[in-house]
Structures are given as structure tokens and as C-alpha cells.
Amino acid sequence: MKCFAFHLMPWDRLPADFGEKYESAWTWLPNSLYDPKHGHTLYNRFLDELVLADELGFDGVCVNEHHQNAYGTMPSPNLMGSILARQTKRCKIAVIGNALPLYNPPTRVAEEFAMIDVISGGRLIAGLVVGGGPEYYSFSMNPTNARAMFHEAHDLIIRAWTEPGPFEHYGEFWKLKYVNPWPRPLQQPHPTIWIPGAGSKETIEFVAERRYGYMGIPYFHVDFFQRNFDMFRDACQKNGYEADPEQLGWLCPIYVAESDAKAGYTSARSLVGIHSAMKQFLINIKTRKEVEDGAYAIVGSPATVRDKLTHYAKRLGVGNLLGLFQIGTLPADLTKKNLTIFAQEVMPALQKLNVRMNAPAAV
């Protein structure tokens, strides 16, 4: 099993009256609440945390794309990916991902991802996503065509990476006389591709057909992940092959401390910050027991976290764990401690774990 450190780079200074005064942390939350001076500190702190993950032996680090919100302040994850390509030495750099319909033309994605791949020495994992509803509000775009735009953009990017240029592309949404991107990616025929999903049958079938990686997004009950991953395995079987556990990833908030009691207290406070900023997730969850029963987050002592993650990895049959180690308002010292304890006392056992024989049969 491979362990990744996923970062959202959230804004950690929402006002105390946020829940009463503001409807959402997305799209129309006034950007007057953003303080660039504090943002300078945050960005550099968050990058340091991902560089630390590389030094601690994580298999990869993950960044992602969101726009006009306090939940994730990376409108351009490729900028962060390029910094990490230079500052990290060995880990994979997973950009999960670029929302393809928002790029005009989408060959920008092919170019920028190729740059990261070349700078890093072939360590890029290229995340390609349709993009969530709030992103289309932020760009004043009609989401009706989102999936069709995604498919055209995807096919164009793959051609740009694998077909010698220049060539022409005349599609429904983009018309390009010359497709001839420089540079080309180092990984051949192209970088590893991951596509996150929230249960869409169309996405699952698309990913399975192309033998890409399917990454489950966080904040849902473990039964939700189980159902989606079983659907993915079934889709792979219909395409004539058995899914590899490395095609599946589970994204989950994780907090490790010296004891279960200490971890539970700290993580509970941090999860409140997530809940406040994202009312559509965890909306009916009120107690720590509900969090634990649904595996919305994994918290506890090293032994507890190790046992829980081993159990769920076997149950879900996933070969990639994407851990959120900086949760909500969790400060820098506790985030560093969380990463370090996990790397030293939990991760070695997980990296030795073989889930292939334990993966549940598709239904």
C-alpha cells in the first residue's frame, strides 16, 4: 500500500460568526476576509508540510484545485506542483486534479503537467477532473456541457502527449490549428492518470475502461466508498481485467497523537472547522462515535490508527491511502507532529500491507 499526504491548504481564519453570517464558504464568501499577509505565511507553511512528508518517507504528496473559497486556497495546483517538483526529492507529486472544462484551451493542462513531470524527473501523477458544481458557479459557466467538455479535453490532452505534433484538432468545444506542445512529458507514453469521483456511474465506467486510477473523495460514510469501489471493480471486470488495488485510492482525514483521548479531543475541534466550511459534507454527523463508525476520519493513538487503517484498507481493497493530515484549523506544530508520528509508527506497517488478496469481490 502506498501512503500519500493530501493537502487542501484551507483558510484557517473564518470569523467566529461565520455560521450565522455567511451562507457558504464557496463562490460568494467575500474575499475581504482573506488577508494576503497571513496567506503568505500559510502558503509557505503548507508547502513546508508537504516537503516534510517527502523527507519522512511518504510515497507521494497531493494538491488539488478549487476556486473562490476558503476550503481550499489552490486555484492553481500546478503552481504548487511545480514548487514541489523542485523541493521534493523522491515522492510522487499528485495534482488531483485540473478541472479540464475550465481550461481554454485544455492543451494548457498538457503543457503544464509536462513541465511538472520533466522538472520532477517523472514523478507526476496527473489528476483530470470534471470539476464540482461550485467551480462552475465561480466561472459563470453552464455545467450542462461539463462532461462532454471533459471528454473532449481529455482526448485532446492524451493526443498531445502521445501523438507527434503539430496536428489539428477541430472538436465541438475547441478548434486548434496547431497542437504541438513543448515540452513533452518524461513518463511514456504519458504520466499516470488519476480521476477522482463521488459515485458517478459515468466516471467509474470511464476510468475503468481506460485503466486509470479512481480516487474516492472524502467526508462520506465508509459504506459509500465500499459501494463505489465495488462498482469500479465490476466495471473493470466488464472491460476484461481485474482491478489492481493501486487503481483505487481512499481519501480520509487522519489524526495521530500519543493517546486515543488526546487525538480525539484535537481532531474533534479541527473537524468542526471542516463542518463549518462545508455544510454539504458531514451535515448529519454530531458525535465522535458517528465519525468513527462511518470512518469519516481516523483518529487515535498510533496503534488505534494503524489497526483501523489496516482494517479499512483490507475491506475496501485500496492500494493508495490519501491522508488529510492538516485538518481545518489544525496548527503547524500539531500538523508536523501528526505527520511525523504517522510516518514513524503507522506508515511502515501500511506500506508492507498487501491488499490484493484481501480485496472484496465485486458485486
Q: What can you tell me about this protein's structure?
A:
By secondary structure, this protein is α/β, with parallel strands linked by helices. The chain has helices at 18-21, 36-56, 77-87, 107-120, 133-138, 146-162, 201-210, 222-238, 260-277, 288-293, 302-316, 332-351, and strands at 2-6, 60-63, 92-99, 124-129, 167-170, 175-179, 192-197, 213-216, 248-256, 298-300, 320-324. Strands 1-2-3-4-7-8-9-11 form an 8-stranded parallel β-barrel, surrounded by 8 helices. Strand 3, helix 4 and strand 4 form a beta-alpha-beta unit.
Give a brief outline of the structure.
The protein is an alpha/beta fold. The protein has twelve helices and eleven strands. The protein has helices spanning 18-21, 36-56, 77-87, 107-120, 133-138, 146-162, 201-210, 222-238, 260-277, 288-293, 302-316, 332-351; strands at residues 2-6, 60-63, 92-99, 124-129, 167-170, 175-179, 192-197, 213-216, 248-256, 298-300, 320-324.
Helix fraction bin: 40-55%
Oligomer: single chain
Radius of gyration: 20 Å
Describe the main β-sheet briefly. 8 strands, parallel, barrel
Structural class computed from helices and strand pairing: alpha/beta
**What general outline do the C-alpha atoms trace?**
globular
Number of strands: 11
